[in-house]
Amino acid sequence: MAAWRPARPADARDIGRLSRALISAFPERDEVFEERIRLCPEGCYVLTEGDEAAGYMVSHPWRRFQPPKLDALTGALPGEPDCWLIHDVAIEPGARGGGQAGAILERVAELARARRFSVLALVAVGDAQPYWRGQGFETIARPELAAKLAAYGEGAAYMERQP
Predict the structure, then answer these.
(1) In what order do the strands lie in the sheet with 52-62?
(2) For the whole model, what pTM was predicted?
């Protein structure tokens, strides 16, 4: 049975492999995931089935309306974050359907609430907007986001909800 556990920097290779396989249009280096885990270990998780990684969640404090550049190291989290960003979440097809995505989303929402953030934010890529709408997220359309979202591909949308 699949179970979520906290991610460790050593998991970055497995997370990178899953990311490149499941979100192949937006590859990110293992170093990006390792840095996010190091900067915010409490917001990063790995879904395991036995000893194998079958999914991951990478999230951390950030700034609203300022999605990070893809495949870029940040060096540090922002000094005055005003939202909890879901950087990435992906689950292998064979591990889906058991409520794992909803469970980890709720765990991250609890963390955001405990840290007194009033907003969860993400960039939905590809055809993921309907899924995230079903999770309570709403698309935020702002002119200044257009250039930033262009790097995330056609149809990318910045979305938010309360934790």
Answers:
(1) 3-6, 44-49, 52-62, 83-91, 120-124, 157-161, 138-139
(2) 0.95
